[in-house]
């Protein structure tokens, strides 16, 4: 996912529900506002056409004098009825740049036909008030009696012209009333009110649900890392969430009980096995054949190492010591010195000072297992420390045959080895890499194995241990 999108897109349950609710409300309110605005516009247009029909059919003075000369505009503007009347002219009111309103003409024609008015042509257009001198003059002469005196002057008007059979045009001007802004404002206020009520209520409900879920998530993350039974979440929220939390607490208690039983059992097994092994180790000293005695001692030592690995792997998930600040270069240097003292070809490159929160005893065990693996299969091991975003890295390189690419993931599983034998010279019980991976995961990190290639062939194996900074 793109990082920018990750920042803007809500990822929590509450954020996504509120986002989709707001989007649905926006769509519904937009559709509703469009329908209301359209209906209002249709009503306004119908009212204006009816007003134009009344003007054109309700002026007996103009209808009685249809054959006379055109009435001057001054006579129309000065009428005592204080309304802009009907202009009588021998020419069409339609201008070349104007577009006729076909639907309005059809409606007006039906009204005039119903009133028995004979005509040869109808013209209905919409015109800006600023472009009509007669309308501007009328508004200037009647400021007090204008229906728009207390509001903003109209900007548009409907102009309806009727052509009589005698050749004269009768034209009525109907101002388009304002109110569009007020309508839009009322729709926006209504939408805002609905948003506040619904989104606010949903936010409170989701908060009641998500707060215990967030606490439960934090608890699960902590329990998966520490396996500690302290600090369980108290059931809260709706009944469904309460039941979920109570079930999780019961599951935690059951898991902790099983882990405790496992630790007791493994401790007993370790004690019961190591005691006779120690006694057997003493007894084989009486064997006179040095070769046979050495083979017996090596077999007992191999059993002891395998037993230690099994017990360590069982305990790594429930460490008894707390993480502490650890300087990785010093820890790695101390481990490498142990192998140098034994004459093993293990080196450590110079590295910067890197401090992490770690369990030093377990981390040393993981490094020893990885170094032993490199020595066993590659004859040497080279350590190098580095940094990656959010992680400190410890890389162990060897010059061995590597691992087939399709077998790398399997090699991290317990008791897995590439060869069928399990003698001490070729790798023991196959728990070293598994234990190293468990230690990395105990610290919130990872262990990655990768073949190193040179000239198209495998030149060795690289094990990368990542520990969070």
From TrEMBL:
It comes from the Bacteria. It is found in: Cell inner membrane. Residues 207-260 form the HAMP domain. It catalyses: ATP + protein L-histidine = ADP + protein N-phospho-L-histidine. Residues 268-469 form the Histidine kinase domain. Its main location: membrane. One of its GO terms (molecular function) is ATP binding. Keywords: ATP-binding, Cell inner membrane, Cell membrane, Kinase, Membrane, Nucleotide-binding, Phosphoprotein, Transferase, Transmembrane, Transmembrane helix, Two-component regulatory system. Its EC number is 2.7.13.3. The chain crosses the membrane at residues 183-206. SUPFAM superfamilies: ATPase domain of HSP90 chaperone/DNA topoisomerase II/histidine kinase, Homodimeric domain of signal transducing histidine kinase. It is a multi-pass membrane protein. PANTHER family: SENSOR HISTIDINE KINASE ENVZ (PTHR44936:SF5), SENSOR PROTEIN CREC (PTHR44936). This is histidine kinase. It comes from Novosphingobium tardum.
